[in-house]
Specification:
The protein is α+β, with helices and mostly antiparallel strands. It has helices at residues 2-16, 89-103, 198-211, and strands spanning 21-25, 32-39, 47-52, 55-61, 70-76, 80-82, 111-116, 120-121, 126-135, 138-151, 154-165, 183-193.
Length: 213
């Protein structure tokens, strides 16, 4: 009798366990994906800042055991827009052209990819997400630190960053011609993303599709 009750309890617990939820990560009004390169020397404190306008990702989130979650993310290299406000418009265009075509070589390597290989908890709502980051066809280990916000078991936002070394991916900083003397080897990727479930995306796009008929 005791054994039967134990089996029943375990079975009930298994049925009550929340299933992993699939979220999609994509551009939105509150979202951002930014790459920043700092300068040194006389221009210390200045930064080259690029914002990616097109990206997509899938997060399989386990609300009961976040460490079991996994993520795949892709950013389109040619969607990076230089947002420097401390240079002339002419130099800003030069910096963007150099970053896209000389540094990232977007014609040959159009995508930047990240695939998680594990997740470990740093704090109550903070996690380290190691994985493989591929830039210019070169894959290197990278760790993203992510702060998670939830409400009633649902993910409401992901905020985080990763610090990378340009030389690891064969990236060369802009030359003196672009006013980039003293650029650091490190670059920082930071983001704020509001995840959406496929059902929410369908509800958002359905009125547009109906209006197009």
């Amino acid at each position: 009798m005791i054994a039967s009750r134990l089996v029943l309890v375990l079975a009930s617990a298994s049925l009550l366990r929340a299933e992993p939820v699939i979220y999609e990560l994509r551009p939105g009004p509150a979202n951002r994906l930014t790459l920043t390169v700092e300068k040194t020397g006389l221009m210390s404190g200045r930064k080259h800042r690029f914002e990616f306008e097109r990206y997509r990702g899938t997060l399989v989130y386990d609300p009961e055991s976040p460490e079991r979650s996994r993520v795949e993310f892709v950013a389109e290299g040619n969607s990076a827009v230089c947002k420097d406000t401390w240079v002339s418009e002419k130099d800003r265009r030069k910096i963007q052209n150099f970053a896209l075509h000389d540094m990232m070589a977007v014609e040959r390597y159009p995508e930047l990819r990240f695939s998680s290989t594990g997740i470990s908890r740093k704090g109550e709502d903070s996690f380290e997400v190691p994985g493989l980051l591929t830039i210019r066809g070169i894959s290197k280990p990278a760790t993203v630190v992510v702060d998670v916000k939830t409400q009633s078991g649902r993910l409401t936002s992901l905020a985080g960053q990763a610090v990378l070394r340009m030389k690891d991916y064969g990236l060369k900083p802009p030359g003196a011609l672009l006013g980039a003397i003293g650029t650091k080897n490190e670059m920082t990727v930071d983001f704020l993303l509001v995840p959406s479930t496929p059902a929410e995306i369908t509800q958002t796009t359905k009125p547009e599709a109906e209006g197009a008929r």
